[in-house]
Design brief:
- The complex is a heterodimer of chains A (about 150) and B (about 280).
- With about 150 residues, chain A is α+β, with helices and mostly antiparallel strands.
- Chain A is built from 2 helices and 6 strands.
- Chain A has a 6-stranded mixed β-sheet with strand order 1-2-5-6-4-3, with helices on one face.
- In chain A, helix 1 crosses helix 2.
- The relative contact order of chain A is 0.21.
- Chain B is elongated.
- Chain B is built from 7 helices and 6 strands, in the order H-H-H-H-E-E-H-E-H-E-E-E-H.
- Chain B is of the alpha+beta class and about 280 residues long.
- In chain B, about 30% of the residues are buried.
- In chain B, helix 5 packs parallel to helix 6.
- Chain B is about 25% helix and about 20% strand.
- Classes of the chains: A alpha+beta (about 150), B alpha+beta (about 280).
- At the A-B interface, helix 1, helix 2, strand 5 and strand 6 of A face helix 3, helix 6, strand 4, strand 5 and strand 6 of B.
- Chain A: This is Ribonuclease P protein subunit p20.
- Chain A: It comes from Dicentrarchus labrax (European seabass).
- Chain A: Keywords: Cytoplasm, Nucleus, rRNA processing, tRNA processing.
Chain lengths: ~150, ~280
């Protein structure tokens, strides 16, 4: 919470659902001395053509993955998701895919709000602090990249 | 700002940094102080550069500085320019056509910039949308029916947040979202010399969100109906999946995480959450 931009929440796994520990960044909070742990966002259903974009993986790798799904995988459409800071990257990937297809692909963007939960645990077990949770909202974008139906 | 310039330099492996850097002695890990106002953001910049190396058509920048004789296919990142003693003089956006076809000209357009305060934006927009609803007549001043939020570069996330907040406060709004690239022209000049000047053209992603009380065309790509039932559906799914993840997650030292739904607590209220023992 001390960093204004913390991309830690955009770590929604791309390959398999991961239920490991919740902390992506433990930030000390004073004066009550809490350790802040961010819970992973709610696991969203993932179809074959869903791509979740994050800030940790290389941009080009994510772009190549989307391209492979569209061309090789035979999907007529893929859905690119981005949460928080990854929104920019998701938009870039989608626009890139459209540009590389010479304008054949079309984009449809939907936005939503995702609730994120932070666990605050007292640093010192003897401290009088009690474990608390805090929820906050974050924006998410879902971009559908598709070949338009011939009419 | 990014905490790690390490992120930045990590992606620089395939950038033509050697050609870009006129002063080889400068270190590159120093975070710079960007001027307030509108910046395209290092995030977007690096994405611009990465994609340009994939072989995408890139808007070539007009580099008029004598320090960089070779024409660069990639606009130098703002971070580098700041480190080399360049200061941004001005940033102008090139006008691009409005992406919404057939939009009324009197629609309120909210331009979200990176430094905009959401509080101020929402105050103005809500007043215009909700206020003066009692005034009869179809004039512009009589309770707006439509509003457009536009933002580019680093302001995209803020734009989406503003639109989401407005949707939440003013219910049943139809949404239309459009994405496109915007070309931004920046003028950088040398702080010491004052003679050399550089004009950089950057393409940054931009978003335009149209919110309307009147129904929009559902066949238009990017259309989103007002969320009424879908919110409930999301909540119900959230209950199921969060209880599932709470079970599978290793509990560790947290005594209360077995409780699937911890009540929200504000720090100042002094209400504590205790798991049922």
């Amino acid at each position: 919470m001390t960093e204004p931009r913390n991309p830690g929440m955009s770590s929604v796994p791309q390959t398999a659902p991961v239920h490991t520990d919740s902390s992506s960044a433990a930030v000390e909070m004073d004066p009550v001395e809490y350790t802040l742990r961010k819970r992973l966002p709610r696991k969203l259903p993932k179809r074959r053509n869903d791509v979740y974009v994050n800030m940790k993986t290389d941009f080009r790798a994510q772009l190549a993955r989307c391209q492979k799904l569209l061309e090789g995988g035979g999907h007529r459409e893929i859905c690119v998701h981005g949460l928080g800071l990854a929104i920019n990257r998701a938009i870039n990937i989608a626009l890139q895919l459209q540009a590389s297809s010479q304008g054949v692909l079309q984009l449809a963007a939907n936005t939503s709000t995702v609730e994120l939960v932070d666990d605050l645990e007292p640093e010192d077990p003897d401290e009088a602090g009690e474990p608390m949770t805090r929820t906050r909202n974050n924006s998410a974008i879902h971009i559908k990249v598709f070949y338009p139906d011939p009419q | 700002m990014f905490t790690g310039c390490g992120v930045v330099s990590g992606q620089n492996q395939y950038l033509t940094r050697a050609a870009v850097r006129p002063h080889p002695g400068l270190e590159v890990n120093r975070p710079i102080q960007m001027e307030n106002g509108v910046t395209p953001g290092t995030c977007s910049v690096y994405q611009d550069q990465t994609y340009s190396n994939v072989g995408q058509p890139v808007v070539v920048n007009n580099v008029s500085s004598p320090l960089k004789p070779t024409p660069l296919p990639v606009p130098p990142p703002a971070l580098k320019l700041g480190q080399e003693g360049f200061k941004k003089v001005c940033r102008t956006e090139e006008v691009s056509p409005c992406p919404f076809p057939g939009l009324a000209s009197g629609v309120l357009e909210m331009r979200v910039k990176e430094g905009s305060k959401i509080r101020n934006l929402m105050g103005f927009a809500m007043a215009r949308m909700q206020g003066e609803k009692g005034v009869s007549g179809g004039g512009v001043s009589g309770g707006l029916r439509q509003v457009v939020f536009t933002g580019s570069g680093r302001a995209v996330t803020k734009t989406i947040t503003c639109a989401e907040i407005m949707k939440r406060k003013v219910g049943s709004l139809h949404q239309l979202t459009k994405l496109q690239y915007k070309v931004v022209k920046e003028v950088w000049e040398n702080t010491e010399g004052g003679t050399s000047e550089m004009t950089v053209h950057r393409t940054v992603p931009s978003i335009s969100i149209l919110l309307s009380k009147d129904p929009l065309d559902p066949q238009e790509p990017g259309y989103q109906p007002p969320e009424i039932l879908s919110a409930l559906w999301e909540e119900r799914e959230g209950l199921e999946s969060s209880s599932q993840t709470a079970c599978k997650r290793p509990l560790g030292p947290l005594p209360y995480s077995s409780f699937p739904h911890c009540k929200r607590v504000c720090l100042g209220e002094g209400v504590s959450v205790h798991p049922p023992h």
